Amino acid sequence: MRLLALLLLALAFALPVRAQEWTSPFGRTHVLAGKVYDVAGNAFVTPDELIVRLRAARYVLLGEVHDNADHHRLHGGVVAALARAGRRPVVAMEQLDTSQQAALDRYLSIPGDAAGLGRAVRWSSAWPEWRFYQPIAEAALGAGLNILAANVPDAELRTYMREPKAVDAAFAERTFLGLPLGEANQRSLDRELVAMHCGTTGTVIQQMSFAQRVRDAAFADTLVRGEEGAGGGDGGVLIAGNGHVRADRGVPWVLRQMKPDAGIAAVAFVEVVDGLQQAADYRRLYDAAVLPFDYVWFTPAATRGGVDPCR
């Protein structure tokens, strides 16, 4: 029996990624679309090679552009591939907050399909429709992985923005929330928030910066406590915006403080831009000397209405 189990495990690790999981439904007209870039190695790797590397990491952080359906479908492919390789991580999602965890647990406790999960947790209209994220749930449910709500409820976050001392002391201590990011990282975060909010400056940016750090801390805390709980035990996968999975000042930064010996892999899913033909060109989009991720998976951009949100 032991020999059979070892043979089955070896087979699982040898299984190739299903090709359709990595095929973009939006076409590939840009030279980088569909390519995966290893930042430290300054080289491209195949999706299959990426999975081999990710399965060795304790924590796998998958970034996204929220309204790009391609990103969520690829996320589902990564989760499914990790499960086929024998990993049993918890799957934590930014798009669900802790007030939804009880409903999520109830739904997961009985047989159900991924399509009904969004309705069961009263999926927030602040996010793209549930169907965008359904492939991630399908992969998790299909592999029997636990799904966790990682975000802080909006009402709580607004309170923390007005009164930082309202944050639970034990949470702040275990997530190193009081530890400065460093001057350069803090300036970078502030500049990003100004740009994201159409040039807004002043005290509100300081409040938003603190809120960003609280969310990053909450995401990291969910991963760590989730894998230590009854439904975990084999690391975690985080689904969150690209800004949260930045290796220099996002969730990876928090995890390095909490679990300094843990392997962490941050994968940004980045939409290609006309005129930016080299992977290194995209560092300017992140106000960084080098791309602030371990890997970047380039995809076509989603089709949007073209309305400028700052007008």
Write a brief structural summary.
By secondary structure, the chain is an alpha/beta fold. It starts with a helix and ends in a 12-residue tail after the last strand.
Record field, number of beta strands: 8
The main pleated sheet reads as: 8 strands, mixed
**What is the residue-mean pLDDT, rounded to a whole number?**
87
Number of helices: 11
Strand and helix order: HEEHEHEHHHEHHHHEHEE
Instruction: Write down the domain tally.
Output: 1
Approximately how much beta-strand content do the residues carry? 5-15%
Architecture per CATH nomenclature, i.e. the level-2 architecture: 3-Layer(aba) Sandwich
Radius of gyration from the CA trace? 19 Å
> Spans with pLDDT under 50 lasting ≥5 residues?
1-20
Helix- and strand-based class? alpha/beta
Overall geometric form = globular
Write the layout of secondary structure elements.
Elements (H helix, E strand, L loop, with lengths): L1 H13 L21 E3 L4 E3 L1 H8 L4 E4 L6 H16 L5 E8 L3 H8 L8 H4 L9 H14 L3 E5 L2 H9 L6 H6 L8 H14 L6 H26 L7 E4 L11 H8 L5 E8 L23 E5 L12
Helix pairs in contact: 3-6, 7-10, 9-10, 10-11
